[in-house]
Amino acid sequence: MCILRGQRVLRAGDGFHGIIGCYLTVKDSMRTLVSALLALLSLVAVAVGLASLWVEQNLVDESGFVALAAPLGDDPAFQGALVDSLVQDVTSDTGLPEQFTAFVEPLVRDAATAVTGSAGYPGAWDRTLRLSHDLTFAQAPDPSEPAPAVLSLDLAPVIDLVTENISSGLGLEVPVPGSTTIEVGSVPRGGTFSAVAEAVQGWPLHLAGAGILAVLALLVARRRGITLALLGLGVVLIGVAGSLLAGILPGIAVAAPGVDGVAEVFVRGLAEQAGTDLAASSIPVVVGGLLATVLGIVVQLVLGRRRRG
Length: 309
Fold this sequence. Notes:
Layout: E1 2-3, E2 9-10, H1 16-60, H2 62-69, H3 76-92, H4 98-115, H5 121-136, E3 151-154, H6 156-170, E4 181-184, H7 192-199, H8 203-220, H9 224-254, H10 261-308
Antiparallel strand pairs: 1-2, 3-4
Helix pairs in contact: 1-2, 1-8, 1-9, 2-5, 3-4, 3-10, 4-6, 5-6, 8-9, 9-10
């Protein structure tokens, strides 16, 4: 048996019209179900594609990462933490007796502070970010090796600038520390970051697939205007989710284990920069979704009037 659009119960035994009514009811229900499934898959593909696009352009791509993190070099809080880290790195490897180290430390601090305002600092910071990006997204290590850091900040170019400044000021050769890398947290062995870097390259396929699925959903739908409006509303929700994620991103980043000192300041600053960019990138998504929603409503109203006419 079946029910034809809220009318009485029809049975196959009711005759030819009853059979046709049951067939049409089942057919309409299946069209609605298939259209809803296609629309849902389209929205999932949109979310994955947009997220992959943002990650690829702002984190995986070296130029995008440098552009995102470059403003941190001028942040006073980060510069203060950076100076503390540089002083500790340089003074720990001088090879001088402890009493001499206490004498040298203020000189190193003054030199490090002066470096952050020098003409060579922007170039050194740019090289630091590029080295850090290469280390962070390096290929997965052998399973027997220690877990790679979530983020590796290589301060070698800035430390070189500091030691050169000290050496020229004191007339003494200051040794460069053996280790200049700050590692933040760790990820499971196998190179999660390198795997992510490869996965996000598929964003064009995700977005193309989302478009195809959306078109199929509209073709199958009984009420195409409503389907288009719901697709637009789903895109709006994706954009809103991106904006909400942008607000909580800094807190999530600094909560990771192994984040302290200069690493904490850097990670928080980078997360804030990422959040700002993510929020700005979410605006066109929300606007596009709203336009699709309005267009769907208009289409449904026009088609409804034609049917009544």
